[in-house]
Amino acid sequence: MPRPSLAATLMLIGSAFAATAAVILTSTAAPAAPAAAPAAATPAGASPVVIELFHSQGCSSCPPAEADLNAIAGRSDLIALSFAVTYWDRLGWKDTFAAPQFTDRQVAYARAGRGEVATPEFIVNGTDAVVGADRRALHDSVARAAATAARATIAVHGATVQIGAVGAPQPATIWLVRYDPRTIDVPVGAGENAGRTLAQRNVVRDLVRLGEWRGNSASFALPPARDPGLMTAVLVQQGAGGPILAARKV
Q1: Is residue 95 part of a domain?
Q2: d(CA 30, CA 23)
Q3: In contact, 117 and 107? CB cutoff 8 Å
Q4: pTM greater than 0.85 (yes/no)
Q5: How many domains does the chain have?
């Protein structure tokens, strides 16, 4: 099935842009498999490369890209995140992890000129878009991002993160991401993937805006996790759909 166009998608998601949703885990979780790809060398001053996959359980083109994400999900030099979007939910199968907030995030990238509103799509460090399951293009994009020094520092002190500038300060949004590192097997009962069981990993469960950072040293409180099994990452991102200046697993 052809991927939805930007215009068709914006009509489909309608008023969902402003909504936020808590995603309820409804599938069976199994222990996470070890990462299949070796970690790349990380230069001094770099932070983990952030890879965001926008996809849907209802999209038949998505499983290969999901497998690519699963293969690198455990790497220490990456923060690989699985964002399920909502615009496939009216096309036969409602994604069990999708939230309008995640769709809004992909739309923000498209409006900033980074990629399009389509699945599957990878966004690397908030700058490069890789549409489809193109493993070579994804590898090359990650390599370019890994060679770039972070433009902010992130220090963790208990339940607080402190952000400081490296070089010229750049105003940014501080995001808290909580995601499930386990492999979750999702049986799909309808739509393009009907009858298949999809293995999904690093599923994002919470995306919380902690506040704005103006370049001076600033501290932000980390809210407690609703599930102790979730992992936490902090992203420093310039503008809506902008580049990620720094990231850290907490």
Answers
A1: yes
A2: 18
A3: yes
A4: no
A5: 1
CA separation for the pair 203, 53 (Å, rounded): 10
Q: Which amino acid is at 78?
A: L
CB atoms within 10 A of CB 132: 17
Confidence (pLDDT) at 18: 35
DSSP 3-state assignment of 42? coil
Q: What is the CA radius of gyration of the chain?
A: 17
Q: For residue 27, tell me if it sits in a domain.
A: no
Mean confidence (pLDDT) of the chain: 85
Segment-wise mean pLDDT, segments of 10 residues, the chain, 250 residues: 45 37 34 40 68 98 97 97 97 96 98 94 97 93 94 94 83 96 98 97 97 93 93 95 95
How distant is the alpha carbon of residue 233 from its chain centre? Answer: 10
**pLDDT tens-digit series, residues 56-78:** 999 999 999 999 999 999 999 99
Residue 37 lies in a domain: no
Within-domain flag for 33? no
Residue 87 is part of a domain; what is its CATH number? Answer: 3.40.30.10
The parent domain of residue 238 ranges over 6-18+48-249
Residue 239 has what DSSP assignment? S
Specify the length of the chain in residues: 250
